[in-house]
């Protein structure tokens, strides 16, 4: 192999190597920092890029995507001198590759240490109870401080989250006891309120039941009284109509004194009927009625002769002349009649 061929091969190799060093491909969401003769020259964008071989050097590539970094638990002292362990998560993104490369040696370590110190400053001004209940406040304050401090590094802090806040074991046990006691208290209060409401509702129900029953009894009594009054009124009206009809019939028939006396005499056995009748009174008008009846019998005897009984009416005994002694007891079969206006025991 001649010297010319060797020289040609060397030239081709150098040209190929130079071509390889000239063409650089940068992935998407990545930026490359180019230094020319040891100084910052430019930033390579994603895609195909050309550099000057042996003069330009790519210092490195930086991920431009949002990154999530979880830091180990950090002990923090609260304002009431209690040590709590806090885990933090930082969401950040490189927005200036040049600043992230030349303004700080390692921005991840810088963000971590800045988060720890800022967290201690924020939590140090709070007591334990406020620390446990003010996560959103701590997150907002941390994000504001970190975003302001990392801005000159070309980093933007998008979000800060506290994963866990762990108080000491003794404090946690006391808090659990306090929470248990508070829950037992609320349970007892709720149970007492439930029993109170149940008793109130039961009493109201009984009261309403008594009121409704009394109202129902009153309405029933009123309706019963109204029904009885209406029944009595209807009976009285019926009796009045019956009496009026009898009175009208009697007056229309124009009865004489003898007929009325005879009817009066027929009603006497009905008055004496009944086992409970122990005492009854013969009215004083009985004598005048029997006198009229005696006149009737005398007239009937005169016209009929001896074909009838002694009183002129078949089956009727001859009446005696009424007087102060009243009616003879033998004149009414099965009944003993007292004297005129004289009560007698049955």
Automatic annotation (TrEMBL):
Keywords recorded for this protein, A-Z: Hydrolase, Membrane, Protease, Transmembrane, Transmembrane helix
GO molecular function: peptidase activity
Region Disordered: start-end pairs: 305-346
Limits of the Band domain: 21-179
Membrane topology, from the record: Single-pass membrane protein
Cross-referenced InterPro entries: Band7/mec-2_domain, Band_7, Band_7/SPFH_dom_sf, Band_7/stomatin-like_CS, Stomatin_HflK_fam
UniProt feature, compositional bias: Basic and acidic residues: 328-339
One Pfam family per UniProt: Band_7
Domain of life: Bacteria
One Gene Ontology CC term in the entry: side of membrane
Example GO biological process: proteolysis
Cell compartment(s), UniProt: Membrane
Keyword Hydrolase: yes
Family label: Belongs to the band 7/mec-2 family.
Protein's name in the database: Regulator of protease activity HflC (Stomatin/prohibitin superfamily)
Species for this entry: Planomonospora venezuelensis
């Amino acid at each position: 192999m001649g010297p010319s061929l060797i020289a040609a091969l060397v030239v081709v190799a150098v040209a190929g190597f130079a071509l390889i060093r000239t063409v650089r491909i940068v992935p998407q969401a990545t930026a490359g920092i180019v230094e020319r003769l040891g100084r910052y020259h430019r930033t390579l964008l994603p895609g195909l890029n050309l550099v000057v071989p042996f003069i330009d050097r790519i210092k490195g590539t930086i991920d431009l995507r949002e990154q999530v970094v979880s830091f180990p638990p950090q002990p923090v002292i609260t304002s009431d001198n209690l040590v709590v362990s806090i885990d933090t998560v930082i969401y950040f993104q490189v927005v200036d590759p040049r600043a992230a490369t030349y303004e700080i040696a390692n921005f991840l370590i810088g963000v971590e240490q800045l988060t720890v110190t800022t967290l201690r400053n924020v939590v140090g001004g709070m007591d334990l109870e406020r620390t446990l209940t003010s996560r959103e406040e701590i997150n907002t304050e941390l994000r504001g401080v970190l975003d302001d401090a990392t801005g000159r590094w070309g980093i933007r802090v998008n979000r800060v989250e506290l994963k866990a806040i762990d108080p000491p074991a003794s404090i946690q046990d006391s808090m659990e006891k306090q929470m248990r006691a508070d829950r037992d208290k609320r349970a007892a209060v709720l149970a007492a309120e439930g029993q109170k409401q149940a008793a109130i509702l039961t009493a109201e129900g009984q009261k309403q039941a008594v009121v409704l029953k009394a109202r129902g009894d009153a309405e029933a009594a009123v309706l019963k009284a109204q029904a009885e009054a209406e029944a009595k009124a209807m009976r009285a009206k019926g009796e009045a109509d019956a009496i009026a009809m009898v009175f009208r019939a009697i007056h229309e028939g124009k009865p004489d004194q003898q007929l009325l006396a005879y009817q009066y005499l027929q009603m006497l056995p009905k008055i004496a009927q009944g086992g409970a009748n122990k005492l009854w009174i013969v009215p004083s008008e009985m004598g005048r009625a029997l006198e009229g009846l005696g006149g009737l019998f005398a007239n009937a005897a005169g016209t009929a002769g001896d074909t009838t009984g002694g009183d002129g009416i078949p089956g009727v005994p001859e009446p005696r002349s009424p007087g102060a002694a009243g009616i003879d007891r033998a004149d009414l079969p099965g009944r003993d009649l007292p004297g005129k206006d004289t009560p007698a025991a049955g």
